[in-house]
From TrEMBL:
Official protein name in the record: Uncharacterized protein
Biased composition (Basic residues): 18-28
Recorded superkingdom: Eukaryota
Basic and acidic residues biased stretches: 30-42
Stretches with biased composition (Low complexity): 7-17
Region spans: Disordered: 1-42
Length: 118
């Protein structure tokens, strides 16, 4: 009489279970995601949003100013956008210094101020 083959010992499975994805129909139905987004969106003030909008508008205008200057220039000066932005910021800083000085003194600039580079 032939012997029956003994069953092979099974290995314990170390396979990780797959992460179940939500179906496309159910993906957007998790209300906790929307609640979190609503809470986070409310922390900005109206002034913050206006500041961000102004920053985007100013960047576009600086680019347009650089392109316009390049097109109007009679020589072959090729200013890049970051160079034009740097030049614009230096003029803006000088204007702020002059403006604050004239407001604080009540008068225009003196010769000493002009020599100092203000």
């Amino acid at each position: 009489m032939p012997k029956k083959a003994s069953p092979k010992p099974t290995k314990p499975t170390t396979k990780k279970t797959a992460i179940q994805r939500k179906s496309k129909k159910n993906r957007g139905k998790n209300s906790s995601e929307y609640d979190y987004a609503d809470k986070k969106a409310g922390h900005l003030k109206k002034e913050d949003n206006l500041g961000r909008l102004l920053l985007l508008v100013v960047q576009q205008k600086v680019k347009l100013m650089a392109i316009n200057l390049h097109n109007q220039s009679p020589s072959n000066i090729k200013l890049k956008i970051h160079q034009m932005k740097y030049q614009f910021n230096t003029y803006k800083d000088k204007y702020k210094k002059i403006h604050t000085k004239s407001i604080s003194t009540g008068f225009g600039l003196t010769n000493e101020d002009q020599k100092a580079g203000i």
